[in-house]
UniProtKB/TrEMBL annotation:
This is Cytochrome b559 subunit alpha. The keyword Plastid applies. Keywords: Chloroplast, Electron transport, Heme, Iron, Membrane, Metal-binding, Photosynthesis, Photosystem II, Plastid, Thylakoid, Transmembrane, Transmembrane helix, Transport. One of its GO terms (cellular component) is chloroplast thylakoid membrane. This b-type cytochrome is tightly associated with the reaction center of photosystem II (PSII). PSII is a light-driven water:plastoquinone oxidoreductase that uses light energy to abstract electrons from H(2)O, generating O(2) and a proton gradient subsequently used for ATP formation. It consists of a core antenna complex that captures photons, and an electron transfer chain that converts photonic excitation into a charge separation. It comes from Eleusine coracana subsp. coracana. The keyword Transmembrane applies. Its main location: membrane. Residues 4-27 form the Photosystem II cytochrome b559 N-terminal domain. The chain crosses the membrane at residues 12-31. Residues 35-72 form the Photosystem II cytochrome b559 alpha subunit lumenal region domain. PROSITE patterns: CYTOCHROME_B559. Heterodimer of an alpha subunit and a beta subunit.
Length: 76
């Protein structure tokens, strides 16, 4: 099909004038309601640093990395 025909097609714009805004609204709702944090398991912005854990979780020694990961995971 010709690209010009698709762009000037009334059926194309009837379909896409509904689907494009609905995809945008669905994405906005997915993020603004916090569902994206729950689905992907990432912490919310206010959960990165708690009262008990104010430091940055860094792995500093590559040979003892498993022990450091265990210590960091216990602090969560």
């Amino acid at each position: 099909m010709n690209v010009l025909y698709i762009i000037t097609s009334i059926r194309y714009w009837v379909i896409h004038s509904i689907t494009i805004p609905s995809l945008f609204i669905a994405g906005w709702l997915f993020v603004s309601t916090g569902l994206a944090y729950d689905v992907f398991g990432s912490p919310r912005p206010n959960e990165y640093f708690t009262e008990s854990r104010q430091g940055i979780p860094l792995i500093t020694d590559r040979f003892d990395s498993l022990e450091q990961l265990d210590e960091l995971s216990r602090s969560f």
